[in-house]
Every structure is written in structure tokens, then in C-alpha cells.
Amino acid sequence: xxxxxxxxxxxxxxxxxxxxxxxxxxxxxxxxxxxxxxxxxxxxxxxxxxxxxxxxxxxxxxxxxxxxxxxxxxxxxxxxxxxxxxxx
Length: 88
Hints:
By secondary structure, the chain is mainly α. The chain has 2 domains: 1-52, no CATH class; 57-88, no CATH class. It is 49% helix and 5% strand. It has 4 helices and 2 strands; from the N terminus they run H-H-H-H-E-E. It has helices at residues 9-17, 31-39, 41-52, 55-67; strands at residues 70-71, 76-77. The chain has a two-stranded antiparallel sheet with strand order 1-2. Strand 1 (70-71) and strand 2 (76-77) form a beta hairpin. The longest helix is centred in the last third of the chain and has 13 residues, at 55-67. The chain is globular. The chain starts with 8 loop residues before the first helix and ends in an 11-residue tail after the last strand. The model has no long low-confidence stretch (mean pLDDT 78).
């Protein structure tokens, strides 16, 4: 439970709370995340979107965006060659 790099305070908190994703916590958004989101507002928007959808629906959206050439890591769209798609 709790993604992120080893030693990450947010990851450790998620493990302690028994959640896989912070928005599943009753305290979301907590003080720790509020500080993090000040520097990463795009991630907060993604958490809000994720919170509204089921895991399956969110994953489908991620796949659709990837098929269009969107990269979650860089937050940019890249042109993909035609016929090169991802399947579920």
C-alpha cells in the first residue's frame, strides 16, 4: 500500500492509514498533502478526477490518453505512429 519512493513521508502515511491512494483516506486532503499540492497543483487535479471515478474508469481514461500520446510523467502529448496502440 502507498506508492512512491522508499522513505517518502506520504508513502509511509498511506501505509499507516491502510490506503493505496491518498484520496481514499478520510483525512484527504490532509495538511501534509496540502503542502505538497502547493507545488504540484496538477497532481491535485488528477486526485480530484480519480476520486470522482472508479479505479476501472480512471484506468480506462489513462489508457485512452496514452493511446493519444499523453505521458503522465512529463504531462505532455507526443505524436505516436499510426497503428501503434495499447490494448487492455
